[in-house]
Write a structure and sequence with these properties.
The protein is of the alpha+beta class. About 30% of the residues lie in helices and about 25% in strands. The chain contains 13 helices and 17 strands.
């Protein structure tokens, strides 16, 4: 099913007699398999409102991310949260949609400065599991009371409702960007350098470690400001680091964001969230698997061919969590995709799902 408007979507859900597998562009099949009739939101497409002066864009959920990016770029603006494109990593085709990005709370390296996708989300419209059309939020940032459905829908992956429209704040494209790339450092020193840089007053928009093990930090803004901040960092924390500018800098962060080094391969890819200072311990405990770090070291992407690598046990012992993003060629050994929730949180999550999808038909079992 591929309804072309909100009313048709509501009718599809209200009349459903069994489980529904909710997808956007079908480019991010992350989660446990869902047995059900496919319901795609990609038929609802188009930018419905764009106010460059107000830094606000409203679009139907099935609108391609590329269309939104082109619309914004024509006015010198962009999505602040720079969503990842999963297609190369997961071996999928199709077109990433803005609803899919919001449903997955897909957030890139700039999260350390501007927050996640949910922090750019101003308002949503969606259809719940009973076929009711609901809306929350608006087109400007404001304080809210009661249930913040805007934040709740970000990352819910279609289990609470099917998004039909999203409202987002955007930002101006900076005049320039530059990246400082470290010489070879051991992992502990690399994480320490990133932490020091993030604790400085120089306003980083990226801090990560690529697949080659080299730490890098990104600065964006007016050319003179970027030049000054680069000089200050090179004279203190980043002595001897290589300066990469413009398009070359952008390509470094695109490769890190999209995990290009892990694409076109079989095996598992885990996304691990821990305190940055715990990153070296995680990698050491797991036998030094291939890894990429983002968010100052707080997000670790790990590639392995070992179905028994105890990623989740190691991470849980440090108070973090791990998501299995890819298991190509290893489905017979696939562990649960999402980290098990503590019992009180699981009870709360189930209670919320029961309110919005009492029949349990929206992506049942996707998130465990």
């Amino acid at each position: 099913m591929k309804p072309e408007n909100e009313a048709a979507l509501a009718e599809c859900i209200a009349s459903a007699n069994g489980p529904l597998r909710i997808i956007g562009g079908g480019t991010r099949p992350i989660g446990d398999p869902v047995e059900g009739e496919v319901l795609s939101a990609s038929g609802m497409s188009g930018v419905t409102l764009y106010e460059p002066g107000a830094l606000t864009i409203v679009a139907k959920a099935g609108t391609p991310v590329s269309e939104i990016e082109d619309t914004l770029a024509a006015e010198g603006q962009r999505l602040a949260f720079e969503p990842m494109d999963h297609r190369a990593l997961l071996g999928t085709s199709g077109t990433p949609t803005i609803g899919g990005a919001v449903a997955g709370n897909v957030s890139g390296p700039r999260r350390i400065q501007v927050g996640a996708c949910r922090d750019s989300l101003l308002g949503v419209r969606f259809v719940d599991g009973m076929g009711r059309v609901l809306k929350n939020g608006g087109r400007v940032m404001k304080n809210v009371t009661g249930y913040d459905l805007v934040k709740l829908m970000a990352g819910s992956r279609g289990t609470l409702g099917v998004l039909t429209e999203v409202s987002l704040k955007v930002q101006a494209i900076p005049e320039t960007e530059a990246t400082l790339v470290a010489p070879e450092l051991d992992l502990g020193n690399a994480i320490s350098a990133l932490s020091k840089a993030l604790g400085s007053p120089f306003d980083l928009t990226g801090a990560g470690i690529g697949a080659d093990g080299r730490a890098m930090i990104r600065l964006e803004g007016l050319a003179r400001s970027v030049s000054y901040r680069v000089q200050q960092l090179q004279s203190s924390i980043c002595d001897g680091w290589q300066l990469v500018e413009g398009e070359q800098s952008a390509m470094l962060w695109k490769a890190l964001k999209n995990l290009d080094a892990f694409s076109g391969q079989d095996g598992f890819v885990w996304r691990v969230s821990v305190k940055p200072s715990d990153g070296p311990e995680v990698i050491q405990a797991l036998g030094a698997p291939r890894s990429i770090f983002d968010w100052g070291g707080g997000l670790i992407s790990i590639a392995t061919d070992d179905p028994d690598l105890p990623v989740r046990d190691v991470v849980a012992s440090l108070g973090g969590h791990a998501t299995l993003v890819r298991s190509v060629g290893q489905s017979q050994h696939k562990p649960p995709a999402f980290h098990p929730e503590p019992a009180p949180l699981a009870l709360l999550s189930q209670g919320i799902r029961d309110k919005f999808d009492p029949r349990g038909i929206l992506n049942p079992g996707l998130m465990g």
